[in-house]
Amino acid sequence: LFAQIQGSARVxxxxxxxxxxxxxxxxGYPYTAVGRVLVERGIFTRDEISMQKIREWMEANxxxxxxxxxxxxxxxFFREVQLSDKEEAIGAQGVPLTPGRSIAVDxxxxxxxxxxxxxxxxxxxxxxxxxxxxxxxxxxDTGSAIxxxxxxxxxxxxxxxAGKIAGRLKSSMRFVMLVPKALDPVARGKKLPVPDARPSxxxxxxxxxxxxxxxxxxxxxxxxxxxxxxxxxxxxxxxAPAATAxxxxxxRPKDAPAAEEPHQSREHRRTRHP
Length: 274
Known about the structure:
The chain has about 270 residues and is an alpha+beta fold. The chain has helices at about 1-5, 35-40, 50-60, 60-70, 160-170, 185-190, 200-205, 215-220, 225-240, and strands at about 10, 20-25, 75-80, 100-105, 115-120, 130-140, 155, 175. Helix 3 crosses helix 4.
């Protein structure tokens, strides 16, 4: 699961050697964050969720962990890369990432190599610590879950300690893009394709997005369909009220031209933390 989220990994082989793998492709399904699923089911609160918490819960609840992982239909395929154990992962820009200096950004809005100044307080030492963080960083990676002009994932390197830090990051910070003086940021900003604002939590609960019953049934093995469906139904009723039925529009005349299907972009989420 965590290699799928990170987009790269070090695999320790039985003979003690290390195999390096990196993101190659994925199956085309949209990514669903398992952390969000656990929050929606009331297993964790939004404030306490972290990669470490998810890992500990999955190790203690293997059966439930498998069912939760099935909620994410996106699957990543990897390729072997010729990197030594000491070399850093390669980002979407095609260059090695630098711990504490590389960030992943929305590639539809930003250009790789753009410098950003990021300032704020991060839980570096522990989940409750507030370590001052003010640093110049460079856009060198991306991910489909990184959406918007002021959203970034910070890269802290490989290893257990770096993974714990990355898993705790969900902080709001100052995000300043540095541009040449000759460029008018106000004029360029008017043409920036900023995504639509997300609905408020209250609206999101009223119009909760659910997986169609027929698709949910396909994703579950026969022996678990009854149990998992009952559990999901109970949690859904406890956390979100049912949406009011809305009448469908009048059917179009048969001679009316069919509407063109919207284009579906296929990106893969390759972030440093869930």
